Amino acid sequence: MTNPLSDLPQIQSLLSQPLIAALASRYSHAETVEALRGVIDALRKALLNGHEGTLPEFEGQAFAAEIEARIEAARTPSLRPVINATGIIIHTNLGRARLAPQALAQMQAVASGASTLEYNLETGKRGSRHDHVEALICELTGAEAAVVVNNCAAAVMLSLVATASGRTVVASRGELVEIGGAFRLPDVIAQSGAVLREVGTTNKTRLSDYEGAIDAETAVLLKSHTSNFRIVGFTAAPDRRDLARLAQERGVILMEDLGSGVLIDLAPFGLVDEPVVSDILKAGVDLVMFSGDKLLGGPQAGIIAGRADIVAALRSHPLMRAVRIDKLSLAALEATLRLYRPPHDPLQDVPVLRALFEPIEMVRARAARLIEELRPLGLRVAEAEDCAAYVGGGTLPGQDLPSVAVAVAHGTLSAEALAARLRHAATPVIGRIERQRVLLDMRTVSDDELPRVAAALREIAAG
């Protein structure tokens, strides 16, 4: 019996064919070889698994086109834009906050040439990258001083290493959170070189618990805002002002890890349980750490604000260089912070906040426009469907937002297959599946993204 594997050509013989040789010349020898190996390996695997069939015409145009398609696919950037139609505004897996045009422009301006990253134009000497945003952060939060690192976990780590290494950190059991990627606050404390002392219970911690735990080895009382979960029912926690007085009386530092952190009060708009940074500092907390890329609406960053003497110790600590913010994130953060100052209105100018508070009528109108685009395509499109959107990013758990989705189904494709086709569109569209339909939530789709959503569905409908 003839071994079907013997009909598979050698890579070298394929490279000698004119169409394949042209590809190697147009792209590169290495890329062409890699694509050829991918195709031959797939054919070999199919044959070994008993899937006998007609082998392709290795000298034909169709085979060369497949090789070229593989090369182009390999050249496609892995980190690429997508359209978030999930209804989760700050989607951790999809890049969190959408940046404002001003932030994008500032990043491009700084990236395209030299910049004043660590150069003082007044003195003509070396400057500090932290100076670009410190005054803005202090103005918006009321802090004495501020410094920025590459993310909030780094902010917590640096703060603890610089103030509590070799000493004790007192924290409530109910606040020992785990954030995304299985990073746990107790592990961060341990890595800082500090010793964790847990107080209270999961649902109740009293001021007396903290008071009884403080001794000569205590350096920090650490509060953590439980922004990604909620404990309800029989609960208790001391007021920040009482904790601040206790910390001052006993000569220890009171820190708070907000996780997210907002600069304006969201309660009047129906989103409660997210404390404002300035209010926390007014309550007497010595140091607060919060993110730049969640409800603040900027790039990934960890912002540390509070007492000037503590911030100075953080600035000069050797770990600072390992966790410092890069110039592009710094440029975007500065531009975003400026949107919180007059004449700007952050509720309109910061995309995350605009998406949170956009009137439902505008979301519904966007859904209607998409439905009109889809009607001629032959897809089964439901009418606009009321649904719930979410803030995401580990913030405001259990609080949803009114939204409107467009439900789409295909005549022959399953909902899973349709969602997969949307993920492989020229600009991938990421929705969610409910009741065998793909739901495209219009609260997280912007007006300028609608044509690309329609184009992706148009291509799928055309077969």
Automatic annotation (TrEMBL):
<keyword id="KW-0663">Pyridoxal phosphate</keyword>
<dbReference type="InterPro" id="IPR015421">
    <property type="entry name" value="PyrdxlP-dep_Trfase_major"/>
</dbReference>
<keyword id="KW-0963">Cytoplasm</keyword>
<dbReference type="GO" id="GO:0004125">
    <property type="term" value="F:L-seryl-tRNA(Sec) selenium transferase activity"/>
</dbReference>
<keyword id="KW-0648">Protein biosynthesis</keyword>
<feature type="modified residue" description="N6-(pyridoxal phosphate)lysine">
    <location>
        <position position="294"/>
    </location>
</feature>
<protein>
    <recommendedName>
        <fullName>L-seryl-tRNA(Sec) selenium transferase</fullName>
        <ecNumber>2.9.1.1</ecNumber>
    </recommendedName>
</protein>
<keyword id="KW-0808">Transferase</keyword>
<comment type="pathway">
    <text>Aminoacyl-tRNA biosynthesis; selenocysteinyl-tRNA(Sec) biosynthesis; selenocysteinyl-tRNA(Sec) from L-seryl-tRNA(Sec) (bacterial route): step 1/1.</text>
</comment>
<keyword id="KW-0711">Selenium</keyword>
<dbReference type="InterPro" id="IPR018319">
    <property type="entry name" value="SelA-like"/>
</dbReference>
<dbReference type="InterPro" id="IPR025862">
    <property type="entry name" value="SelA_trans_N_dom"/>
</dbReference>
<comment type="similarity">
    <text>Belongs to the SelA family.</text>
</comment>
<dbReference type="InterPro" id="IPR015424">
    <property type="entry name" value="PyrdxlP-dep_Trfase"/>
</dbReference>
<comment type="function">
    <text>Converts seryl-tRNA(Sec) to selenocysteinyl-tRNA(Sec) required for selenoprotein biosynthesis.</text>
</comment>
<feature type="domain" description="L-seryl-tRNA selenium transferase N-terminal">
    <location>
        <begin position="5"/>
        <end position="44"/>
    </location>
</feature>
<dbReference type="Pfam" id="PF03841">
    <property type="entry name" value="SelA"/>
</dbReference>
<dbReference type="Pfam" id="PF12390">
    <property type="entry name" value="Se-cys_synth_N"/>
</dbReference>
<dbReference type="InterPro" id="IPR004534">
    <property type="entry name" value="SelA_trans"/>
</dbReference>
